[in-house]
Specification:
Length: 135
């Protein structure tokens, strides 16, 4: 069980969070996919504070990264940084213009299409300036 004490300190993170944080830092990982059960669970954010997995990633585990892109079948594609979100919408508008789609207004919820759209956005240089560095 996780203590309700100072969760922002690495020593008080749950085991899975410590492992993820350590692997990302040791290997210089800039992109990763976190999946599995528990995405709807509440995760520790600090003393007596809990939130979504996206909140936990942004505020606790990856708090030194400026951009986190999330995907959830129900909520769709989400961003922790407005500039990255705007860059993503710019890409979608270009797709719309070329392909006659309306992705900028109605983003896909299905994982295949959503991940196809996220990937080129993460690989652009403008996203790289927001905490992602493509390899």
């Amino acid at each position: 069980m996780v203590s309700l004490g100072a969760m922002s300190e690495p020593s008080s993170l749950p085991g899975w969070a410590k492992t993820l944080q350590r692997r990302i830092r040791q290997r210089g990982i800039d992109f990763f996919i976190l999946h599995g059960p528990g995405v709807r669970d509440l995760h520790p954010l600090g003393a007596r504070r809990f939130g979504t997995i996206a909140d936990c990633l942004a505020q606790v585990i990856l708090n030194d990264r400026s951009a986190i892109v999330t995907y959830d079948r129900g909520a769709g594609i989400g961003f922790s940084d407005r500039d990255v979100e705007n860059d993503f919408k710019t890409v979608l508008k270009a797709y719309d213009k070329l392909g006659g789609t309306n992705l900028a207004q109605v983003q896909p919820r299905d994982p295949d299409r959503a991940l196809q759209l996220i990937e080129p956005t993460c690989a652009t240089s403008s996203v790289g300036t927001h905490g992602f560095r493509p390899r």
